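Milestone M4 deliverable, item 7.
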Amino acid sequence: GRMATTLATRYVPTELGIEGTFNEISIGFIPPSLTVHNPKLQVRARNALGLPEGSQIGAQEVNLVFRFFQMLSGQVQVDRVIVSRGDVRLSYARFDRDSRGDDSKPLSALLPKWDDLLRIRTRAVELNDTTVFISAEDPKMSVGFKAERLSLEKGRDEDGNAVVATEFEVRDLRGEPPKGVGVPNQLDLVRASASVGGRRIVFYELLVERQGVALSLSGEVKGDWLHPSEPVLLESQVKFTGQSQSILAIAADSLQLPAGLKENFRGEIGFAGKISANLIDPLKTLELSGALTSDKIAFREWTANRLVADLNWRASAAGGAVQVRKVVIES
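Output delivered:
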C-alpha cells in the first residue's frame, strides 16, 4: 500500500487537485486511464474535475479515463470518471449565477446549472452502487441517495444546443429541496432517462415510487428551479397506480382531504392522462386531466368491482376542484 501510494504521488500530476490514501493504483494506456483502488480522497480548491473544495470521495474503485495524459508536463484532461461501490459527498457554498454563461460555453444554459451543481469538467461521469450526498448553502438545499447506476454525459441535441444526457436509477432519496420548490423530500425509487439543456429538462422516462405508489411521466420542465424567480412549468403525460390508502396518505402530507375519506375509502387506483403545474406553487397550479380507474373499491358500506371516470382536477389550498365528464360503474 505504501509503495503504491508513493508511486502514485510521484507520477499523478499535481494539477489533478486530488489527495488522499488508497491501497494501490493501476495505469492503462489504451485508452489512457488511472484506476485508484480503495481510495479515500479529499479534493483541493483547484482540481481537474472541478469539484468543490472539501469534497470527499471514498470507493472500492475510482477510474479516470483521459483524453490527454502527459506525465512529465502534468497536463490533464479527464474524459470520463467512473466511481464503483463508493461514497461521494459534495458541499457547496453557493451555486454561481455569474456572467460566465453563454451558448458558446459547454453547459452554460442548462436549466439547473448542472455545471455549478456537479462542477463537471469531464465529458462523462458514471456512478455504480454508490451513495451520494449533495448540499448547498445558497440556495439552501440537500439531497442524498443510493445510486444503483447513474450516468451524466455532455453533448449536443439535434439543434446544436449544449445538453447533458442522463440515465439513472437511484433509491432511498431523502433531502431538503430549495425553498419554494414543490417537490417531494423523500422517494423510494427514481428511474429516469432525460436530457437537460437550454433551461429545460426533457424526460423520456421518469418513474417515481413512494410507499407502493408508482408515478411515471414523459414530458418536459421549463424554467430555473434552483433559483425560482420565474415560473417552473411542468407539462407531461402521466400514469400512476397504487392502493388508495397509500395514495391518500401521501396526499394528506400537503392537501386537506375531506373528513373520513382516508379512513373509509379502499381500492386499487390508476390514472392515465396529462399533468401540468408551476412547480414553484404546485398546490395551487397542479392540473390533471384523463381517465381515473379504481378496482375492488369500497366506501363505507358501498362497494363496486370497477369505476372509470373521465375527469379534470385543479389543485387549490383547500384540496382542489374536480370536474367529472363521464362515469362508468361496474358492480
